[in-house]
Design goal:
The complex is a heterodimer of chains A (about 230) and B (about 110).
Chain A lengths: L20 H26 L12 H19 L8 H17 L12 H23 L15 H40 L4 H32 L4
Chain B lengths: L1 H30 L2 H39 L4 H32 L1
Helix pairs in contact in B: 2-3
Classes of the chains: A mainly alpha (about 230), B mainly alpha (about 110).
Chain lengths: ~230, ~110
Amino acid sequence: MSGKEPETLLGHLPFLKEIPVHTLHSILTAIILSGISIYIFIKLKRLDDYTTPDEKPSIRGFFEFITQFFSDILTGIVGEEGKKFVPFVTSIFVFILFSNLLGLIPGFYPPTMNINTNAGIAGFVFLSYNYFGFRAHGISYLKQFLGPIPLLAFLFLPVEMISHIFRPVSLSIRLFGNIFGDHTALETFTSLVPILVPSIFMLLGLIVSIVQAFVFALLSGIYISLAISHEH
Amino acid sequence: MRKVIEKVMVVSFLLFVPAICFAAEEGTQGVENASIKTALAIASGLAIAIAAFGGAFGQSRAITAAMEGISRNPEAQPRMFVLLILGLAFIESLVIYAFVISLMLQGKI
């Protein structure tokens, strides 16, 4: 929306100046997540028994909790075959969550505050659920676009097409608007009262980050379940 | 005779009023942007205000219904929670669209 590039800590490094800010921070998020996954992988490799959980709260326990949570939800939405999509949905959730949380650290910029990052993820979701639909039904997946009654197919086709095309748009704009609005509120109140008051908005930002990442992942799961359902 | 006059009046009204509007639009473009900027400022403020009112109203109704449902049947809470968050997100996304539109208007001032 704004033409000016925002100031960040990483933007001051000389060789990183040329890269757009949201790309830089997406790469940073990806590096952080890769580091965490390598750490957990090495830790799991040293263990004899994978199934015993850690005694104290740990990073591994946190990620296991997220995976279990989405496994339960996807089983509720899709059914027993929903377990196949747990890695897909959970990785989207984790990436968006960490991108959002990166913005709460002063001096960093959340990659999801730029609509290009969100549109990239949403376009990926769009292509994926169509692929899953084709994989589940073959060419008869296209029948879903024609509605239940063959005579009224000419009415259903444009409506379904528009609603399908609007899905990635609404996904990306929702995430962008929430994160952008939250940061604008935080910025405004920081400039008004620099002490103590911004912490309330940071708490609000934490809630918004978690809820929006959850909504994005949940909607991806629901789109997949609609694409592969056998009801039509 | 009177009906014919009425019809002619209505048709001419419908034909000429848009022409007047277009003429007015062309006139202001060249003169100055101050009034357009005022209108943009008022519109961007009103857009988010009305959207926030509607969104808050809708969300309050959704939360009321969910609370009532949970207090009647506490065991259904996990299933209701997911649907509640989903519904709230859908309601809120409309407010967010209005917010984005308001930002776009603000960018034009």
